[in-house]
Specification:
Blueprint: H1 9-23, H2 30-42, H3 46-55, H4 57-62, H5 64-75, H6 87-120, H7 138-141, E1 142-143, E2 146-147, H8 148-159
Antiparallel strand pairs: 1-2
Length: about 160
């Protein structure tokens, strides 16, 4: 995602986990507004958060009834059949199930994504190399072991 270029791994993991958790919120239409509020609170571009939300929308539809049953179980109520008259109760149980199941899983997803993103980042596990005493890095004084003038001569010869 171009909108996440240059973000630290902690922020990227937070955006991905929050977008996924918010994306499966069982009430249709609410996840978009919730993503905008979270993007404002995190002071980040809402586009990547909304993109993850959009990708998670099939899960939102698929998880409404399982979350409603989990919420009914957590609340100690009997699961209700979804009818037009009982829709508010079913959605209340679904929101309770989302809060009890998806939010803790989102915290776990954050730490798992953080571990993957930090591991995949180049140079994450290597200690920083100390700069030479004269203040220049090795790359600036030579490119792959060749002095700058020799490298430029070779590049000019190749372009002829």
């Amino acid at each position: 995602m171009a909108a996440t270029a240059g973000l630290p791994p902690q922020r990227m993991a937070l955006i991905l986990a929050a977008g996924l958790v918010i994306g499966v919120f069982p009430v249709m239409g609410c996840p978009t507004a919730m993503c905008l509020v979270v993007a404002y609170a995190l002071r980040t571009n809402p586009a990547p958060l909304l993109a993850v939300n959009h990708v998670a929308s099939p899960l939102q539809i698929a998880l409404v009834l399982p979350l409603a049953r989990a919420g009914a179980w957590f609340c100690g109520a009997a699961p209700q059949r979804m009818t037009a008259l009982r829709l508010a109760g079913v959605l209340a149980h679904a929101v309770a199930g989302w809060a009890c199941v998806c939010v803790p899983l989102g915290v776990g997803a954050y730490f798992a994504l953080l571990a993957l993103l930090v591991r995949g980042k180049p140079g994450a596990n290597r200690p920083e190399q100390a700069a030479p005493a004269h203040g220049r890095s090795r790359i600036s004084s030579s490119i792959c072991g060749i002095s700058k003038t020799a490298w430029f001569r070779q590049a000019a010869a190749r372009s002829r």
